[in-house]
C-alpha cells in the first residue's frame, strides 16, 4: 500500500502559518523551566526536542516542525506541534538579536531570568541550537532549579557535520539576497543567525569559521561542565536511549522507541521550505508595484496612440 503523500506545508506548518504579532517583551513565565539541553547544534538536538516533548515537557527548539523526519509520528502527534515560534512570530528574532548584541557586542546589560522568561516563559525545556545554546552560562544561572543535559559527539564527526550542513547556508548569497528582499520575515531570521556566526565563531569567512570551530566547540562543553553543579548535569549519548535520560529526569520510560531524527534530511527540508516562504513573501510584496507599473505602461501607451 502506497504511503500517503504529505505536502511540504503539512510537514513544516510554522513556515506557512500566518505571522503572529506576539510581543515577548510583555511575556512572563507560565510554567517552570525544568530542563536545559545545552548541547551544540548537530549533536541530535532535534531528537532531544522530540524526546523531551514525549516525556511531557514543552520544548523550545529553533528549527520548525519537520514531521516526516520523525520515525513514528502517529505515536505522538500533538507534542510535535509544540515546536518553535521563530518562523510564525518573527518578533522573537528581534529579541534574540538584542540578546546577542548584548552578549557579543556589549550593547546592553547582561540577560537576566526576567529577560529569558519573556522569550521562554511558555516552555518547560530548551533543546539548545543557536542562539539559545550560546547563552549556556546565563541559562544555568537564571534557572538554578533546572536540570542540564549535555550531548557530545566526537569533535571531528561534529565538525564535518557542522561544515556540511550549517556553514554553507550561513554564507549563501541566495539567502542574503532573499533576506534583503524579505526584511519583515526572512531578514529577521537571517540577522538572528548572522549574529552568532560573528559573535560565537568570528565567522568573517567560511575559512575563518572552519579554522576555529573545533576550539569553539571544545570551549563550550568545558564551560557547561564548569558552571553546572555535578548533581544537575547529565552527560548523555543518544544511543543510550530512554534509560539514563528518564532516570535523570525522574520520568517513566515511554512505550515507544527513542526518536531518531535524520538531521540532514530535516535540515534540507527546512531550507527548501524557508526559500519557498521567502519567495512567496517577495512576490506578494512586489505585486502592487508590478500592477502599478503595468497600469502606468497601459496609460502611457493609450496616450501615445491617441
Task: Write up this protein.
The protein starts with 7 loop residues before the first helix and ends with a helix. It is built from 13 helices and five strands. A five-stranded parallel β-sheet has the order 2-3-1-4-5, with helices on both faces. 52% of the residues lie in helices and 6% in strands. With 306 residues, the chain is mainly alpha-helical. The radius of gyration is 21 Å and the shape is globular. The longest helix is centred in the last third of the chain and has 42 residues, at 263-304.
Task: Please outline what is shown here.
With 306 residues, the chain is mainly alpha-helical. It has helices at residues 8-11, 13-16, 45-54, 91-105, 113-120, 136-142, 155-165, 167-170, 173-181, 186-201, 206-227, 242-249, 263-304; strands spanning 35-37, 59-60, 125-127, 147-151, 233-236. The longest helix has 42 residues, at 263-304.
